[in-house]
Write a structure and sequence with these properties.
With 560 residues, this protein is α+β, with helices and mostly antiparallel strands. The chain folds into three domains: 60 residues; 196 residues, no CATH class; 198 residues, no CATH class. The protein is 28% helix and 31% strand. The strands form eight sheets. Strands 1, 4, 9, 10 and 11 form a five-stranded mixed beta sheet that branches. Helix 3 crosses helix 4, helix 3 packs antiparallel against helix 6 and helix 6 crosses helix 7.
Length: 560
């Protein structure tokens, strides 16, 4: 960026003219002559010196803004917060629709009401920082005796305060975006890049951004049916990939407008977080470092598309409607003035705005779900916080849906979306009855015939050619299945019989589901019995992946 060419004399003249205490008593410097004599007058007089420093602080930002690095993500600022400490974000989804003919004969239908589908989210003031620098008399004396000394004095004091803030705001915004990506709340789109040209890769990206201009629930974690114009969408692109796009696609395209993305474009140095030491300094315990595996996945990101209002960055107005506040105090022991810059605000993102992340050759998927603690005891009237760990690939959504078994709900237990289990003081600890179920192979299955027992497939082999042998084979297969044997104790009590006895954690879950629709020659039957009244069944807590509901984990909580 070009530097403003201002001589010491010109700059000092401007400062004197802006400072009544100086302009009323000092002559303006003459161009081409040394300003050192005027500098001695200013430094030697406390009134002049303080007035001079105050004016530097006031004009410093104006000078610095014309000569410093600019935040490429300046679009993240949404506005100002003058009072309070919260921003409440509200949005209304589409109205419910009803069939006219179904309601035509309902004489009381007009009395019913339909509440609007309103969703809200609260963003708190979470950025309260200050920056500090010092200005001593030696620095001031040197400023009047060296070429461009006054300019350097300003840039080294006031300038670095604001430069530090600008850089930190960029880092924090980038961390917010990267954390959302890793947590799976930015919908992931696989880019097929292997053996593809940059032009072919960009065509895949354009296909997605085109879809984002239509109302669609698939591009925000809240499932709101949103749509944005191209002018309202921002593509944040990896610098390396944008370099290839510019040279290999745009520079060689006759119809350049059709070759480029129609969204607005911003660059980032990398999505794989850099300068983690600075982020730790800025955010402290609020900064959660990325694992090596997460960094490797972030390195595959080519671009992210978000709406202009995705970031929820608001400046808190500290003083006289200003977005930041500068304060200072003089240390008589060190003969220096300490200058502070304070900045408060909200740094957050919206769960309702459209977004998507493009990643190299990786299908988003959930590989496993686990719950902690997996077993615990809770006293009536108390709460228990459970957490779910979801392992994913390709930035699939890591959120889970929490639920309880029917008996626990009937007895008064509940669990919220944050995994907090509440057991009321009046929780009913009804006893459960232990079920015993006998599967009898009454006629041997023909070779190749099969049955399903709770989704586990057993196929008759040539070596198991009698009903007794097949019952034994079924027993061996199910007893070795960890998930099945957690629910049932499996035994082979007599010839041709497999017995399933509910384990203490699963009283009342009923008999295993049997699917024998393939059988033509064989026959199986299931007999149900009980083994007496046992102690109360524990609460079954389920954490189910919202991205892939086949991935689920369970915790068993005993109530005392």
């Amino acid at each position: 960026m070009a530097r403003v060419k201002t001589s010491n004399a010109e700059l000092l003249s401007y400062i004197i003219n802006q400072t009544p205490a100086l302009s009323e008593n000092l002559d303006l410097p003459v161009q081409g002559q040394s300003i050192a004599p005027i500098g001695k007058l200013i430094i030697g007089n406390p009134v002049y010196r303080n007035a001079f420093i105050n004016t530097i602080n006031l004009i410093g930002l104006t000078i610095i803004k014309r000569n410093v690095w600019e935040n490429p993500w300046d679009f993240t600022k949404r506005g100002n917060l003058a009072i309070g400490s919260q921003i409440r974000e509200m949005i209304v989804d589409l109205c419910n629709v009803y069939d006219y003919n179904s309601a035509d004969n309902n004489s009381t239908r007009f009395l019913q009401t339909a509440d609007p589908n309103i969703l809200s989210n609260i963003h708190e003031v979470n950025f309260q920082k200050f920056y500090e620098t010092s200005l001593n008399e030696t620095q001031m004396a040197m400023a009047f005796n060296s070429e461009e000394g006054l300019y350097n004095l300003i840039t080294e004091t006031v300038g670095m305060l604001y430069q530090s803030l600008i850089y930190d705001e960029y880092l924090v915004d980038k961390y917010i975006l990267a954390r959302r990506i890793v947590d799976g709340t930015v919908p992931s789109v696989k880019l097929v890049t292997e053996n593809k040209t940059v032009r072919e890769i960009v065509s895949q990206m354009k296909s997605t951004t085109n879809k984002m201009t239509f109302r669609n629930p698939n591009f925000n974690p809240a499932g709101i049916r949103r749509g944005n114009s191209f002018e309202e969408l921002m593509t944040i692109m990896d610098s390396d990939f944008e370099g290839k796009l510019s040279t290999e696609v745009l520079a060689t395209s006759y119809y350049i407008n059709e070759a480029q993305l129609k969204t607005q474009l911003r660059l980032t140095d990398t999505f794989n977080m850099a300068d983690e030491s600075r982020l730790t300094e800025v955010l402290g315990s609020a900064y959660v470092p990325f694992t090596d595996a997460e960094k490797a996945e972030l390195a595959k990101v080519k671009a992210v598309v978000i709406s202009k209002e995705w970031f929820m960055d608001y400046d808190y107005l500290l003083d006289a409607q200003a977005e930041s506040k500068q304060t200072e105090w003089y240390s008589p022991t060190r003969l220096e003035k300490n200058i502070f810059l304070h900045k408060w605000g909200v740094k957050s993102s919206s769960p309702f705005e459209q977004c998507c992340v493009f990643i190299d050759d990786t299908d988003p998927s959930v590989t496993s779900v686990s719950v902690s603690p997996s077993t615990a005891t809770v006293t009536k009237g108390q709460e228990l916080k459970l957490s779910a760990t979801v392992a994913t690939q390709g930035f699939a959504n890591k959120a889970v849906k929490w639920s309880l078994n029917d008996q626990a709900v009937t007895s008064g237990a509940s669990i919220n979306e944050e995994g907090i289990l509440k057991v009321p003081s009046g929780y009913t600890t009804a006893s459960g009855t232990q079920g015993v179920y006998n599967l009898t192979v009454s006629t041997a299955l023909a070779e190749g015939e099969y049955i399903y027992i709770d989704g586990i497939k057993y196929t008759a082999a040539a070596s198991a050619d009698t009903a007794a042998k097949q019952a034994t084979a079924i027993y061996n297969q199910l007893a070795a299945n960890t998930a099945f044997s957690a629910k049932y104790t499996v035994t082979n009590p007599s010839s041709g019989v497999v017995r399933f006895t509910e384990t203490s954690s699963y009283y009342g879950i009923d008999k295993p589901a049997i699917d024998d629709s393939d059988l033509e020659t064989g026959a199986v039957t299931m007999a149900v019995g009980t083994q007496g009244v046992q102690s109360s069944s524990p609460i079954h807590v389920f954490a189910t992946s919202i991205y892939d509901d086949s991935k689920e984990a369970e915790a068993l909580i005993t109530v005392s």
